[in-house]
Structures are given as C-alpha cells and as structure tokens.
Amino acid sequence: MASRGPVPAMDATAIDRALVRIAHEIVERNPDHLNDLVLIGIPKRGDNLARRIAASIGKNAGIAVPVGVLDITMYRDDIGSRASIPKPSDLPGSIDGKTVVLVDDVLFTGRSVRAALDAVVDFGRPRSVQLAVLVDRGHREFPIRADYAGKNLPTPSGANVKVELSETDGRDQVLLEEAP
Amino acid sequence: MAGAATAKPDCLAAKDLLGIEPLSRDEIQLVLETADTLSDVARHPIKKVPALRGRTMVNLFYEASTRTRTSFELAAVRLSADVVNISVQTSSVVKGETLLDTARTLEAMSVDFIVMRHGSSGAPHTLARNLKASVINAGDGQHEHPTQALLDLYTVRQKLGGIEGKTITLVGDILHSRVARSNLIAFTKMGAKVRFCGPPTLLSDDFSTLGAEVHHDLKTALAGADVIYVLRLQFERHRMGLMPSVKAYTQRYAITPERVKWAKSDALIMHPGPMNRGVEIAHEVADAPRSVIVDQVANGVAVRMAVLYLLEAGRTKRAAAAGGAS
C-alpha cells in the first residue's frame, strides 16, 4: 500500500499570521525589556523566522530588535547522526543582561533547544531566555516548553514535519509527512 | 556540474588520519571549511565547545615536539576532550616495551584518539591497523605530517583567497622533510603547482616523479612564486657529507631579504618551525610583514579541531550504521 503523500499543515498566510501573532506576544510579555530584546535563530530555518519576527516587531511596535544566529552543531548530543558540519554563530554583540528569545522552526524532542541553551550561556549571561517556535509537534524528551508557538500540531512520532520558507526553499509552507 | 555528482562528505570517511594521500579533495575542503567555523571558538567568551566531552586523546610522542603537541592539546581541550601526554622519556618505552604493547595498554584504558609522532615511517599505520582508537599521524619519519599540510593549505587559502593555480616553492632540506612530502601531495591535490628547491644532496631529481618541479637554482625556483616555504635544516637527521658546510648552504639557499624579491612582490613567507634563524631563513625575513609563520601556528589549532571533530563524526556515523544493521 502506498503511504499518503505530504499533507499541508500551514500555508503562507497561516505562517505569516502566526509570526505576526508571536511578534505581538513577545512585545506584550516583555513590557519592561523591549529595549534589551534579542532574537536568536537556530539554523537552518530559525534564523529566517527570527528576522521575520523582528521585522514584524519593528513594524508594529517601532522597535529595532537585534537578530543573531546560533549554531548548535558542537553542542548536540548526537554528533555524526545527521549532517553535522558546524556553521559560524553570529550574535549581535554581548547578550549579558539581555532578554533572549530563541527561535526555531519545529519543537519536537527538545534536544535542539537543550543544545541551544548550553550554547547561549557560553556566550554570556542573559537576564532571561524564552523560546518561540513556528510549530510545536509534541513528543518532548526533555522538560522544555515553548513560550510562543505559531501552531500546535499533534503528530505521530514517526511522522516528519517539514517547514519550507521562501528564503531557503522558494516558498512558505509547512507539510506533515506521514510515517512510511 | 552534473546532477549525478556524489554528495559532499560531512565527515572524514576513514577511522584514522595517517596521511594526506588517502584524503579526497572534498574531504580536504571539508576540513578547511570546518576549521573556518571552529577558529571562532577561540574568540568566544568561553573558549570551548562540548562536542568531544567524555572523549580521551593521548599525545604519544617518540620525537621532540613543542608546537605540534601543544597545538593538538589545545585543539582537544577546546572541544572538551580530556588529554594525556606521554613522552618517551617518561614511559615504559625506556624499559623496552614494544610500540604495539604501549598502544594496547592505552586502548585498554579506553582511549579514543592517539596522536602519534614517531621516527619510523609507517609506525602510526601499524598502530591504526591494530587498534579501535583513531590514530592521527603527527609526523612519521620522513613520510608524512598531514595536519601540518592541512594548516598550510588553510593559511594559504586564508591569506591569498585560494589555492588553485598558485605556485608554492619549498626550499631547503627536502630529503628529510615529511612536511615537504605532505605539502607536495596536498597542494597538488588542491590544484596548486609545487616546486622543490635545494642542493642535490638534499633534493634528488627523483622527486619529479612525485609531481614536483625540481630546482637546484634558487632564483629560477622563486620566479613567479606565490609562497616561499622555507624548510628547517634537520641537522639531527643528517649523516656526514650531505652538506660541505652550513655556510655553503646559506650562501646559495638561505632566504634573505634580497632573495625574497625574486618571488612575486606579495609572496607569503612560511616555515613549519622551529626556525634556525640566520641559517635557512634570515631574521628580517622571518619577522617581515609578509611572513605568516605566526598565523600558521594559530591556524594549527583550528585545523586540528576540525580533524578531531570530523573523525569523531565519522566514527559515530559508522557505529550508528553498524547498530542499525544488526
């Protein structure tokens, strides 16, 4: 029996709306720290999401939020089990005392976020660290939750959630690929 | 490029790094690119990453070395591995233990990486065949010194923006130099032209069969060169009669400010160290702005981090594949 093809879970409009909502929520929840917000994206798609959220905050609240990129390859607990070539991190200055919002495309087991937290604290001592994701698909293996989630998407654990963004993939969409 | 091109590697395929010879061009490129990223770690507030936490590396040196041993040690430490240094003077080797027994003893203590320097060509290969640990050749006799060649490639690429099409002239004691041999293979593989220059007693014409242009006249060897790579006169390996005198050598082959002008005006000056100042290289040349000898040392740490990390990535990958198959 042929397995079903990928099922669309979010289209471009839904992604856009989700990111705008996350931008609003970040501003609402950090009224006293708007000037020390830093958005840090986890490649390969979190960095582009972070830039879009920052643009949205700029548009709606008139604040220029610095954006950085954090490579977590050297902090993972599964070296060699995936494409594991490290890429440079690029943080916008010191993160000491800042309110850092980590941005990733999909929250699944929580292992990437665990690695990202370790990496962040090697760069400085932020006042707090929050987490924004486009899709929360469940199946956590660590006590980690998202502060901002674009969409909660219940999934079978063997399935694959694929986020495509125009910057890297030519178009915006989220697909749910069923387990074979 | 055709769509059928094979995928770029994301780790080193072999368990060990014994020479430049077995590496593919893509693997060399991968090491250089990974070193680019890892050179950042030295500029972080916390100068280490946890990638090799819980791994152990042993420096097993049967020949004197300060810079290579320290460089490997720093590379391992910046990746959070634990390091044990063994030098022959303090080991059971002086009690007559064989190379293989020493290595098996280390393996019994669950060592993951053995970095080895040995006076005999092929000694690391013997270890590698018999051990599960990854063996890295840090210089074997007159054979190879792969991480030196990798850091030299990295330095040339960093300073000149690329390697392909460049001309590298290595000057001096080619006969005894594993650095010359590894660099010949490495630079040729990456599309550069390699010239060897030295007196006939230290450079036989046979080297041309390995792909080097052989010169005995320094002026022609340096004409149009992008890099002047000065080799150390290895007095400790010289038998009697290879050179009439040090003075005779320096008169014809020492790299002086006047002779530097024979190469391209922006040619780099390189030396693997340690230098015999005033012998194969003049003080003024060693300290000239075009000298990148200090950069070579700095780059050595990043390149060795890349090698350790990519060997580990390959090892984990093979282990996962083996586990999945059973």
Written overview of the protein:
The complex is a heterodimer of chains A (180) and B (326). Helix content of chain A is 28%, strand content 25%. With 180 residues, chain A is α/β, with parallel strands linked by helices. Chain A has a single domain, classed as 3-Layer(aba) Sandwich (Rossmann fold). Chain A has a 5-stranded parallel beta sheet with strand order 3-2-4-5-6, with helices on both faces. In chain A, helix 1 (12-29) crosses helix 2 (46-61). The radius of gyration of chain A is 16 Å and the shape is globular. The termini of chain A are close together. The mean pLDDT of chain A is 93. Chain B is α/β, with parallel strands linked by helices and 326 residues long. Chain B folds into 2 domains: 25-144 and 298-315, Aspartate/ornithine carbamoyltransferase (Rossmann fold, 3-Layer(aba) Sandwich), CATH 3.40.50; 146-296, Rossmann fold. Helices cover 38% and strands 14% of the residues of chain B. Chain B contains 11 helices and 9 strands. Chain B has helices spanning 25-38, 67-78, 99-108, 123-130, 146-160, 178-189, 218-222, 246-253, 257-260, 283-286, 293-325, and strands at residues 56-61, 82-87, 113-118, 134-140, 167-171, 193-197, 213-215, 227-230, 268-270. In chain B, the strands form 2 sheets. Chain B has a 5-stranded parallel beta sheet. Chain B has a 4-stranded parallel beta sheet with strand order 2-1-3-4, with helices on both faces. In chain B, helix 2 (67-78) links the parallel strand 1 and strand 2 (82-87). The radius of gyration of chain B is 20 Å and the shape is globular.
